[in-house]
């Protein structure tokens, strides 16, 4: 699949939830090739501060209009600077990168689960739209979106999901809206209570969340596609920086790695050795400007 | 293209034609495949980044069987960056790569730990550096480039030892030893704790090292460290570097090497120079005071 | 306040009260006044700057007569940064400053050229470093801080030598040897050709050096190099540094040291810590894998 | 004199000649204390790229309105970034710094000369306004401004000087407007041709120009105040980076230095040892974006 370096015009940019921004860009070459679950490497500004690009998933894509949308959360310097750009400015993008989600088979009808932790909602939205578009026979109500954030201010509004017609299960860690507690706990409980057994499972969110999703999927033998994160320098497979410890079924003791930007970011639940994972967590927001 | 920053040449196929580049130095190759270090392997720093990839690579056999044919196809000039844990491993690598079609030269990476000597880095001591270069020299007629580490007191001494042991050229620098920590999790930001700093931040250090090496030895020197523009590249050449390598900048701008080539051509035209050779090594450290009575006439003193 | 970046304390009077700071380390002082290097003495680099001030200073006598009384008046804790061309000059400085009212400690700058040994820098060899520290130790009962250069192969060895020779503390790092050139005039950007790199660019190197020193010696270590925010300062403290110095950042933001102090207090409150001592040296290099079976429970594995 | 760190609002910003920008800022504390010939250290943007502040002279000051104006030429990264700021943004300033010009004595009437090379016009404008303001008896036509640039596109328009009523002598290196050749040559020739002997002389411009001005002033024994440049890190006297070799009349062999930010930027013609000066020249404009 071809990759492009494209100087994309910012068409629209606004804060849609607490520290969560939606940006629409004109980027025809990239938009035409983009798959749900793939990402772009964004240069947040000219110069060398910050030095590296930042990976952001496609949130929505509009190939005919030549547009893409990104949804991102301000967690550090790069995303903070990004949030200060305005329509009319240009951003240098590299993409589309990574493998992307596999859509359910054309004859799939059964329920599917989508689990989004926080900003993990970003790529799942594109996925839901693509499923709806590519498979009109698929009842949107069979898409069960389990969507949790820390607190209600971080949730995308209900209306955001209205047109899609999917079934949204809400949770917040602090109970300020929907189910109180982690989204994975809500999901596991729902699955148990209503004997819910999705045909397939898609998830995006922090690694802590993905760990629980992966455990559930493996235990219940449900095929899962997890969008995983890692720190990236190139996004192209050149630096080998974005490694995650690979699980090799043949040789569980083998010390191999998968690379998020080439082999992923979408992985089956059994692809990584969770017990060898070190997690990076963004600093608390109040220290952001430091 | 600096080693470790351009993969095996395929990764940038959409952005530039490796045949256009002077040479591609592929990712460091060892005798056996190496999985590399556990993640996190990267951290961004002010105007730079630290990496602790741990020299993940497919091993020399697979490199020769799979990667090299692809590079040959693209007509890239390939320099193979090699490293080992012992002097013998270096020698073994040289034997395997000697005579392989499509390998233009070897770059000996002596910035990795010497297992025999308790993890000391080969490139930090003139004697061990010479031992590695000598062993490689004995096994191959290929042109040899020795890549030096800046993490030493006197880089010129290491360069001299490498030249005496038979290297044809020196490239400098490899990354600068560095570290980063996270005050919230109270952990190192790299699983490996230490890593190597690269990018614009190290350019002033790389220029100084290059200058010291050029004063110590007569062989061709290749500048590397923080190069991201034609101006950066020309700075190393002004000191006397015959060629340059671009590393970290590839990550930010995959087309950067072509931009640099074009920028150098533009500069030469602007300066009325026909060949880059007329610029290389023309640094003037003498004529510093244009208003002095013995000034060398850079100013029109009306 | 790192030496050489805060003048003699008066320069920042409009922006902060030196009495509020832990200590002010004044510009390096020599026995005789020194004019310093010819200009250009500065050049900006990516996330850093190179300086070749050449240790311009008023000399120890004038410092004691004129500058020290002013600092005393402002009730600043004064640490005097000293340097000499010979071991005897260091000893002489210590004698003169010993017992001067208002001098809390001496910081021995061993990063300058040893005229006797052909310009080699005292701090690049354990033996010469020990000679300087020992000579100063013999002349004064003042607390001694030895300031190390990062331009060495093994900084831990130098630190050990300094401790064995009687230093009470180590500060690290001084600037990193560097260079810059201008491709249009084809000249070095500094009249002195070489200079010292400081600023954010060197922080990852300073952290690594500080960590190496902390592993080599038991005495208090003061972190310096690229500190510009409370987070930067806390990173050095996480490694185990008891205190930090702020250099280049003062130029950009004259009130930065007070901002850093406030930021550290905010961090401690946020973390529920009463004293900075509860944070210093708490770097955890062990528990890296939160999902492992023997994980130390940083995660709620529900 | 007190110095301030002030977060100044950009009120107006436009290109008034080729690569030459005029910026008006709201900075009441600094405006109130500013003297002609003093300068501010400007932080051109947040972050560490570029790391250091840039020195810019007061071009005009409006103490009552709390405003200052800066006039600057885009020569490198910092000034290029500065030119991209827009009204409504804030700039962090440090000032007023340096010594400033001494105005002519209150009873001065005789002709004075002001020599501006290129962007050297910046501080001289403030000086001329202050002279006019502080000494209403002084005939503006006695202010002889010798003003030269490389080419006509870089000249500030005639109308710019209209209200002041001073006598402007124009030159361009390429002869595209006014006298052809260097401004110092025009000045020297004018002085000779019309037996012009100013009571005092003020000059600002590149060091090459100042060298000629200083030679002329010393040779003709005219008191001169030259605004000199040097690379600066702090602007406060702390880094000692802005040194220029000092001429000590007592001991011509002495190796001392003056510091532009403390002892200057305004110096008498005999203050520095020109023969020990190394000149920094900006790169040719076409390489600016590199
Ligand atoms: C394939 C992929 C797709 C992504 N898609 C999106 C998206 O659509 N929307 C979105 O908001 N975010 C997304 N992210 C995460 C996003 O890239 C990071 O939040 C961003 O790079 C942080 O940059 P920063 O400069 O703001 O933070 P920094 O200042 O660089 O870092 C702040 C903190 O965040 C952590 N961090 C930084 N980058 C990452 C990362 N890549 N993974 C995990 N932790 C990180 C750091 O360790 C640090 O603690 C994606 C990441 C990947 C790998
Ligand atoms: C006291 C003082 C007052 C000044 N007032 C003005 C003013 O009112 N208007 C104006 O346009 N400029 C003024 N300058 C010059 C201005 O500070 C520089 O042009 C500016 O700092 C260049 O920054 P840059 O990032 O664009 O260029 P850089 O990329 O930093 O440098 C580009 C080139 O310019 C040279 N250069 C950079 N700074 C200086 C400097 N301070 N002196 C000489 N050469 C330099 C460099 O050597 C380099 O070759 C003043 C300088 C001083 C010292
Ligand atoms: C991610 C990464 C991987 C690297 N791998 C190698 C390697 O395998 N062998 C080697 O000799 N140098 C390696 N280097 C060092 C670079 O080749 C180069 O010397 C260094 O990065 C400085 O140049 P730069 O600032 O242009 O990146 C690596 C650098 C980076 C950033
Ligand atoms: C302009 C300048 C002058 C300095 N002068 C001295 C000095 O006189 N003595 C000394 O020990 N260190 C001196 N240093 C080094 C600093 O004290 C400090 O070690 C170094 O700059 C790294 O810290 P920073 O990155 O916070 O600036 C100087 C640094 C700068 C930038
Ligand atoms: S980010 Fe460079 S290899 Fe994946
Ligand atoms: S600019 Fe720092 S002393 Fe003048």
Model description:
- The complex is a heterotetramer, with two copies of chain A (290 residues) and two copies of chain B (302 residues).
- Chain A has 290 residues and is an alpha/beta fold.
- Chain A has two domains: 4-97, Elongation Factor Tu (Ef-tu), domain 3; 112-232, Rossmann fold (3-Layer(aba) Sandwich), CATH 3.40.50.
- Helix content of chain A is 19%, strand content 30%.
- In chain A, the strands form three sheets. In chain A, strands 4-3-7-1-2-6-5 form a seven-stranded antiparallel β-sheet.
- The longest helix of chain A has 14 residues, at 121-134.
- Chain A is globular and about 50 Å long.
- Chain B has a single domain (10-297), classed as Alpha-Beta Barrel (TIM Barrel), CATH 3.20.20.
- Chain B has helices at 60-73, 87-97, 126-139, 155-164, 203-216, 230-239, 249-252, 256-271; strands spanning 24-29, 42-45, 48-51, 78-82, 103-109, 113-114, 120-121, 144-148, 169-172, 176-179, 181-182, 187-188, 194-198, 221-224, 243-245.
- Chain B is an alpha/beta fold and 302 residues long.
- In chain B, 31% of the residues lie in helices and 20% in strands.
- Classes of the chains: A alpha/beta (290), B alpha/beta (302).
- The interface between A and C is medium-sized, with 19 and 16 residues.
- Bound molecules: flavin-adenine dinucleotide (2 copies), flavin mononucleotide (2 copies) and FE2/S2 (inorganic) cluster (FES) (2 copies).
- Residues 2-5, 27-28, 51, 53, 55, 81, 109, 147, 174-175, 198-199, 202, 224-227, 246-249 of chain C line the site of one flavin mononucleotide.
